[in-house]
Amino acid sequence: MKDLGKTQRDYAVYLPAISSFYVKQLDKITTRDKENSRCPVGFELGNEGLDFLKDENSYYHYPWGLYSAGHAQLKLDRADADEPMIQNRDRNKTVILGDSGGFQVATGVIKMDWDNCTDPNDPARLELCEKILRYLEKTADWSMILDVPSVAAIPPLNKRTGLTDFQTCIDVTQLNIDYFLRNRVKGATKFMNILSGNDEATSDRWYEGVKQYSDPDWVEQNYGDRDLALEGFAMAGNVKSNMYLALKRILGLREDGLLKDKGWMHFLGTGKLNWACYLTSIQRMLRKHDSENITLSFDAASPFVNTAYGSTYSYNFFSPKRFGYFMDNAIDSQELKGSDMPMPFAHSPIMERLTAGDICCMAEGDLDRNGKAKAKESTSWDTNSYMYYMAHSVYNHLTAVQEANRLADVEKFRANVHYTDWIRDKKSKNTNEFSPYVPYSVVYFDTFVQDLLDPACEDPYGLLKKWKPFLDELSFGNLEQEQDLSSEFFGEETEVEVTPEEYTNFEEIMGENFSA
To answer: Which of 123, 193, 339, 367 has an alpha carbon 20 to 30 Å from 275's alpha carbon atom?
Structure first.
């Protein structure tokens, strides 16, 4: 078994945003319908080995993940049975970060009474807060407060919510945090304060509106117990993807004394490999100067979502141009039914165990799970095929993150360069290249963060502003009013094309793709 927890070292932690489909189907093919579910000959541990949270009897192990209440079984009396991979994991050996489902609130997957949401006594909002709070306490080690993302008040989502004012998002988020603080069970889970915003002005407004909930002194004065203060932070909106905004926010947290003893800082929907290295650099400096045990993490659902649309990770690439994953159409051919040819992409412990026939298991005339005969043009996959490709893609993403950090560390040690060597060349980025493997920005940024986050830096905000053009090259978030929802959902470039309407119901998307 490949244990990716042991090779993680002190890198920022990538959290696979685990699909509820994966969790529920894993239970079905290993427990509920095990007798009727096929299992490849090469799977010596059975389909049970697809549970990568287990450190024994799995094909690979990785102890971290993100799971969203936005797609979960919120009925607590059914959660254990429906989500055993998450609920029955060994909590001494794994960490699950619970997403509260704020994005699903904004997109309409989780319903909110928008006409009355600013009423402190609105029963619908209070009921939703209670349901999410108790689910997170039951499920997660670290959790996010239930926010109303700023995208809820801008196109295209404002057409669904009816919100037109950014301040309303802050107001409702404050009401939700208040509920969480007054009703949380201390010790059940640790909570993160979400820091959002569309641009510099709105991110500052958001921060000023919520920062007090992370201040133990303020919380003690207003709630009577300093231990109720939120223990970590989650960067959202454009703060999570625009490096200038992210670093400005970190400087503000330090200035306000809010980094001390904080344990976690998460960047939502950030799956780019360059950013895996940037966040490692930030984490090392925060551990050195502010909170020695703080963890920085980032998540993406790409391994699951891309599989849902018939794409797969084939290999990773590392070049001075960029780090990345190569994705293309997955192998899907009815002619391969029964084939014993080994699957390609056998660098993963999933594909190395499979044949083409294990993936392409259905042909024309075969009955799908609904009793409908396969058409000649339809997919050769069944539900298990999607599961195997998802497990493969998760492994591929994990190893890419760790390899990027390993390469970056070697170049940081080997190369004698500094961010002040950076040349602003809008015509060609080749001007700054020096490594055969690593984009120049990764090493330049590391030296920049060492200066910026050193408490001895006399004018960090001035340094930040001076080098904003360099930081803008690193960013993938724009400061436009209308945000790209795909960056919120996938966290990485993807060949998949979906409309904004499809983001609002992930389960329906899965239902369409997993009808076999």
So the answer is: 193
Q: Say if CB 362 and CB 374 are below 8 A apart.
A: yes
Question: Rounded CA gap, 450 and 282, in Å?
Answer: 8
Distance CA 236, CA 106 (A): 13
* Whole-structure pTM value: 0.92
Task: Give me the half-sphere count of Cα atoms (radius 13 Å) on the Cβ side of residue 263.
Answer: 12
β-strand partners of 264: 232, 295
pLDDT digits (tens, 9 = 90+) for 106-163: 888 888 888 899 999 999 999 999 999 999 999 999 999 999 998 888 888 888 888 8
CB 397 within 8 A of CB 14: yes
User: Helix H segments across 290-382?
Assistant: 302-308, 356-359
Distance, CA of 168 to CA of 116 (rounded, Å):
11
Alpha carbon distance 20, 490 (integer Å): 15
Q: Which residue has tokens 């998760």?
A: 394
Contact 305, 376 (CB under 8 A): no
CA dihedral (286, 291, 292, 296) in degrees, to 10, reads: -60
CA distances from 143 to 7, 368, 377 (A): 25, 38, 44
